[in-house]
Each structure stands twice: as structure tokens, then as C-alpha cells.
Structure of Protein phosphatase 1 regulatory subunit 7:
Amino acid sequence: MADDDDESSTILDLTSCQLRDLSSIELPPTLTELDLTCNRLKTLDPRIGDLVNLKKLSFRQNLLDDSGIEALTQWTRISDLQELVLRDNQLKKLPDVSILKSLLVFDISFNEISSLSGLSKFTTTLKELYVSKNEVPKMEEIEHFHDLQLLELGSNRLRVMENLQNLTQLQELWLGRNRIKAINLCGLKCIKKLSLQSNRLTSMSGLKECVALEELYLSHNGISQMEGLSTLLNLRVLDVSSNKLTSISDIENLTLLEDLWLNDNQISSLEGIAGAVAGSREKLTTLYLEHNPCANSQDYITTVRKIFPNIQQIDSSMFA
């Protein structure tokens, strides 16, 4: 019982309580985590600014606008906060959270942010930054994030990959649903997960030196040729579905490949597929080839199963 009491005094989860304010809520001074997800808050309770032990604070899915969170910029007593979530509110600009000197995770996705201006004031300690589903047109003011490991800028208005060169610890880069025409990782070689789904790519060029890549998502682009993949020996997941590919190439020596998504392309024949994926024949467990001309042949599933002895899924068909 003592353990339960201790946790209740350090963690307060008020998710989906439909609160318009916190006047009826006691906020113990010992709180380390406060979750206010899915409420009706338009302003911040000033008592939160006195929770000196607070490490995690979430206002996800509320009704906060720029003026509603202005008090946060003055809360020096919670300067040790490590995680701040403002996801899914009504913000139009980045708040000034320069007082948060220990911030590790910042999430402001699903707002109406039109610029990354102000990021230069953020602490260099940041490890994860989420700004997806906003109106951001340019990657800027990120050069000082030397410790950043994850950057999520999907569903914005980006046209160019830029200013990444100092992010030497970056392992995950999520840029799906933008307007990017060319891959430019600015010399970074340590990225493990890269998503450029639903952009305007016509080429895979620019990946050759990303030898640490484990997951690569390039679906829904205009790519016509598989290239620059032969050096990506750590690749486990490759998604190039919904492109303009007519053949499978440049992956024959990828021995760790487990998931290969090639559906919704223009691959006409299964002939040569065994050689094209020679390195991963034993390892591959999931393969999508549906909505290609080659998947229309009568013995399609049987042929593919013979090529890949350990296959567990072909399109929607599962095998024990």
C-alpha cells in the first residue's frame, strides 16, 4: 500500500477527464509526472509552475493557444522539466521554453506552427523533437542540437532537406508527407530510420553513405529505379511501394533484410527475383508484391514461397 501511495503522490494522470480548469484538482508538490491529455484546458494553472520536482508534463489534445501557454515561459521553478508535450492544440508559433535547461523531449505536433523560428533558444540537451502536422516550410534553427536522436517533421510544407550536418547523433528522421524532391542528408551517416514517404522524389540517390540505416521508407513517390542501396548492409526494412519501379535491383547483398514492400509498382515478371534478393532469401519473412503485373500469374504465391523458404507473409496471406 505504501508503494501505491508513493506513486499517487508523484504521478497524476488526468487523461480524458474533460476538465476546463484544475480548480477542483489537488496538485501534490511531490509530482514528477502530470498528464492532462484530452481535456478542455484553455489556460495553464499557475500551481503547475511551482511543481519543482516535475519531469514530465503533457497538455496533449487541449484547447491551448499562444496566449494560453504564455505563463509557461516564466515558470523558472520547473526548469528541470525533461519532457513537454503540447501536441494537438491551437498553437501558431513555437513557445519560448528557453528556461527549460534540461529538456529532452518536446512535442508540438498537430498544431498550426508556421515556422521553426525560436528553436535556436531551445536547450542543446534535446534528444527528441516532434513537429509533425504543422505548416513548417523550412528546416531551420536546428544546427545546435548536437544530441538530437529523433527529428519528426512529417506532414509539413518542406521542400528541401537542409541544415542537418551538425546533428551527428541523429538516428531517426521522419519527413513523410512533405514536398521534398531530393534526398540530402548533409553528410550524416549514423541515421538508422529514415522516412520520406509521400514526397516528390524521383530518385533514391543520396543514401549510399548511410551505412547504419536499418529501416527505409520511400513509398508513394515517383521513383523509377532502385539504386544506392547495395552499401546499406544493416537494412532490415525497405518500403518502396507505390512508386514507378519496373524491376528489383541493387539489394542482392543485403543479408539482413526481413521486410520488403514492393507493392503497387510496375514489376512485370517474377523472373530474376531469386537473384535480385539472393542475400536475403533465408532472412526475408515479409514480402509485398500485390498490384504489380507479376502478381497476376496463376502460381504467384507458390513461386514466391519456393524462393523464400522462411517467408511468413506474402501480401495479405500468412504462413505458419
